[in-house]
Amino acid sequence: MHHAIAAFATLLIGWNLAPSPAQACERPLTLNATGNLKLEGMLTIPCGLENDDVTHAVVLVHGSGPSDMDGNVTAVTRDQKKNLLLKGISSALMKEGFAVIRYHKRSYQWQRLIQKDPKLATSAKLKDFQANAYKHLLADVESAVQWAQTNLKNAQVTLLGHSQGTFLALQAAHTNKTIKGVALLGFYATGLGTLAYSQIVHRTIEQLKTFDTNSNGRWTAAELKQGPPGLAALAGLVPSFDHDGDKALSVSEIQSFLVQPLLVPPLADLSKQEAPYPSVTSILRTATFKTAFFHGTWDNQTPVFQTYAMEKILKSIKGTSRTHFRYFPRLGHGLDPRENPLDVLYQLSDPAALKTLAKDLKAFL
What is the structure's pLDDT at 25? Predict the structure, then answer.
């Protein structure tokens, strides 16, 4: 009973007056986001430190799609193992002395609100977010930075973006000159529309090549059924997309199916939403903030060749003092082991890789 009373009292008075860090290393927080939206979040702080003792804080910036503050990718993880990507990164950073702020992505927070009140699905505020996603997502990053600067007043704030979060982190640091460091995990230099084409069309064709048993560049229903569930489902498309009537699908016929989502909203509008913002290449070429790149060589969502190219460009301009590059052989988009370079299923992040990321970032900053 005494434990229950203490827990209830903690909720009433708020985390700033909660028990000392020695008793609790994670403290709930709330970001006051644009549109009067409240984003739930979490501060992870080394046990034993007071807020004013923190010298380095990291704000985690999500990848694409609705995501909770923990970065739960269980649904796309092999064998459906519980996989909290951002929480794992947060834990690794905390062990190196960082305080870490993570929060529900706006799209995820909206999902939670709609579950409670379905009428919100047609609200003007939600429609505004859908039409101006980047504007609001960048405002949320800024809200997290302001929260850190207010509550961890002696800390230097660094942004760590994952996937789409690399674009958002760079845009935020370009605008907010108080940000002195940015870490990029799964960086991409092209627009998100180009990246989506690579993932949906190019990557799928590369996967299918392993099931082209007679190497003729065409797939019968029987061949397609030999693939994993996602690719095997293409077998049912043979009657609809077999334009030349040979009872098999050519590369072009399969591409005609795969490209359709890219030709209609919301994917067709990605370039429009990105257009008002400077390219990440232009930002990086002139950036005064330090930038650290971390990339798995078997990442097939944001292919590593774009980071390789950016390393060549930046080293020719800036040398090595303001940039850092670390590559992780045979690891994927979440610094997780993959069975082969085209394996699209996550596994749990490699603990040694996360430890290296955290140590690198501490030394670099």
Answer: 86
Residue among 328, 329, 330, 323 nearest 355 (CA): 328
Torsion from C-alpha of 134, 172, 169, 40, nearest 10 degrees = -70
- For the segment(s) 195-263, the CATH number from 1.10.443.10, 3.30.420.40, 1.10.238.10, 1.50.10.10 is 1.10.238.10
Yes or no: say if 123 and 36 are a contact pair by the CB < 8 Å rule.
no
- Residues 58-110: tens digit of each pLDDT: 999 999 999 999 999 999 999 999 999 999 999 999 999 999 999 999 999 99
Q: What's the whole-model pTM score?
A: 0.89
CA–CA separation, 42 and 27 (whole Å):
6
Token pair 């108080």 in the structure block, residue: 178
Q: Where are the domains of the chain?
A: 25-189+279-364, 195-263
Start-to-end CA distance of the chain, whole Å, equals 46
Total residues belonging to the chain: 365
Q: How far is CA 13 from CA 7, 18, 37, 101, 122, in A?
A: 10, 7, 21, 20, 35
State the CATH class of domain 25-189+279-364. Answer: alpha beta
Residue 319 pLDDT level (bands cut at 50, 70, 90): confident
